[in-house]
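Regression test case RT-17, inverse folding.

Input:
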């Protein structure tokens, strides 16, 4: 049996967990407790998600869709608790990939990492498109292409605005994690303050009671199962928001005391998002002047803000939403870079030695930063003349994230049942005797919501013309192609090359990525 030399130096305690993977510390530790919390909450992004998807939830399920928010929170909180326990044990870059590899096996780890990486790139594009939902509402000057009434005016303009944002996130991430953290932290601070202010302003303009969340607007009439069918569709609006909390751990190699800070950041990020986001949605329904008309189902919360607060205060709040969208895209891009770096460090991607190279000046992997930015821009092109196809692609991204999460919680459950799971000691976060129950709920929830997300409903995947069968079945087909095609490439080509690259290997560590033992 080979022995592993544990790192020594000012952060040797923080780097100890890296030795179990055979990695030497390379990324600079500069992030504190609030930085890690900010990374998680900016990925979830209360203002981005709620403002981007309220129209869909309301249009699909009426005011009663609000109940999907606590439902999704409970399920995702179970997942977050499992992740927090893993973050205390293994606070490493590319968290989902490395966790799945460690507690499952290298093949499952690669598939979880691949799904998460593709989904993250798609998510960057999807988040960036939120600029179109906000900027033209602030000023018509931001409708650069036409006047918004042409067939492709909105879709094309959305791509232009999104491209500017992706260029910004690429540039910031290329200059290192410290600059990213400063911008992200400032943006999150503004977002949290704006969220609290918005809640207060909505509260003082209430026109109806909380019983509004019992109204369905007759949305269940077109479903054989009644309102349940409408509610399951509407719940996608909440499911599309509450994920990405694992980002707090993906920056684990750049955080101080990560095995303690990362679990706290994961839990705080999802709880804060649930409380604040839930209040925004509830109070928006209670304060808007009328629940009738199409604006709530087309313009969503942007319309509610302008309707309740008026043009001046409303537009000021929309600027805060714009900041939230910006830091959300930045956080998603950052997480994708760490995941690509983690996989490349194990020689699990094409041109891995270049992708895993850390800039000595900026102390961040620059090549993945640029490539991910270019790929996100390329995906945007689909939206110019086929926005419905882009909606399918975006939905596929969310499905793959839920599948990647299952690639962690499912093997973790197997490890528990076999008595092989050992949480971190030394007073670090642990679920204790509740671990098995929480893990079971997390797996059942993940499988159930994945099925709900991927179900080929016309109302989700083919709601408007042209009505093509491949759009309705797009999620099933594309996930199968991405997962199957990607894994075939790994199995026949990449797995034969897998192993920690020499330049990233801790001196004396002889365990390659394909031979990591489960705890």
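Golden output:
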């Amino acid at each position: 049996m080979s022995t592993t030399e544990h790192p020594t130096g000012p952060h040797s305690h923080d780097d100890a967990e890296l030795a179990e993977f055979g990695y030497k510390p390379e990324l600079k530790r500069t992030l504190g407790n609030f930085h890690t919390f900010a990374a998680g909450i900016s990925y979830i992004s209360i203002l981005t998600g709620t403002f981007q998807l309220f129209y869909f939830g309301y249009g699909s399920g009426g005011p009663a869709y609000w109940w999907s928010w606590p439902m999704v929170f409970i399920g995702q909180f179970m997942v977050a608790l499992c992740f927090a326990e893993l973050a205390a044990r293994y606070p490493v870059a590319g968290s989902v990939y490395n966790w799945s590899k460690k507690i499952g096996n290298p093949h499952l780890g690669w598939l979880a990492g691949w799904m998460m990486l593709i989904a993250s790139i798609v998510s960057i594009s999807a988040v960036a498109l939120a600029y179109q939902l906000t900027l033209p509402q602030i000023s018509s000057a931001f409708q650069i292409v036409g006047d918004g009434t042409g067939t492709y005016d909105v879709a094309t303009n959305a791509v232009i605005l999104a491209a500017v944002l992706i260029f910004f996130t690429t540039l910031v991430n290329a200059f290192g994690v410290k600059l990213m953290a400063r911008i992200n932290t400032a943006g999150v601070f503004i977002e949290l303050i704006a969220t609290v202010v918005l809640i207060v302003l909505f509260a003082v303009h209430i026109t109806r009671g909380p019983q509004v969340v019992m109204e369905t607007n007759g949305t269940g009439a077109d479903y054989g199962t009644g309102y349940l069918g409408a509610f399951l569709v509407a719940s996608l609006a909440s499911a599309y928001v509450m994920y990405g909390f694992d980002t707090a751990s993906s920056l684990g190699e750049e955080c101080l005391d990560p095995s303690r800070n990362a679990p706290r950041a994961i839990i705080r990020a999802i709880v804060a998002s649930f409380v604040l986001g839930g209040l925004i949605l509830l109070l928006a329904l209670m304060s808007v002047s009328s629940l009738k008309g199409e604006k709530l189902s087309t313009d969503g919360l942007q319309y509610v803000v302008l309707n309740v607060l008026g043009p001046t205060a409303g537009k000021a709040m929309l600027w805060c939403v714009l900041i939230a969208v910006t830091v959300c895209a930045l956080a998603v891009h950052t997480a994708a870079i760490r995941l690509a770096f983690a996989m490349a460090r194990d020689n699990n991607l094409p041109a891995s030695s270049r992708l895993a190279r850390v800039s000595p000046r900026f102390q961040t992997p620059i090549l993945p930063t640029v490539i991910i930015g270019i790929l996100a821009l390329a995906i945007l092109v689909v939206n110019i003349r086929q926005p419905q196809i882009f909606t399918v692609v975006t939905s596929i991204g969310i499905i793959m994230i839920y599948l990647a999460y299952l690639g962690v919680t499912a093997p973790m459950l197997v490890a528990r049942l076999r008595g092989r799971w050992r949480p971190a000691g030394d007073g670090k976060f642990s679920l204790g005797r509740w671990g098995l129950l929480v893990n079971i709920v997390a797996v059942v929830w993940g499988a159930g919501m994945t099925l709900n997300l991927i179900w080929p409903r016309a109302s989700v995947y083919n709601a408007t013309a042209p009505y093509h069968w491949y759009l309705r079945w797009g999620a099933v087909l594309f996930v199968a192609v991405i997962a199957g095609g990607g894994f075939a490439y790994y199995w026949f080509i990449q797995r034969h090359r897998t192993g920690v690259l020499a330049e990233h290997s801790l001196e004396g560590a002889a365990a390659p990525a394909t031979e990591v033992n489960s705890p």
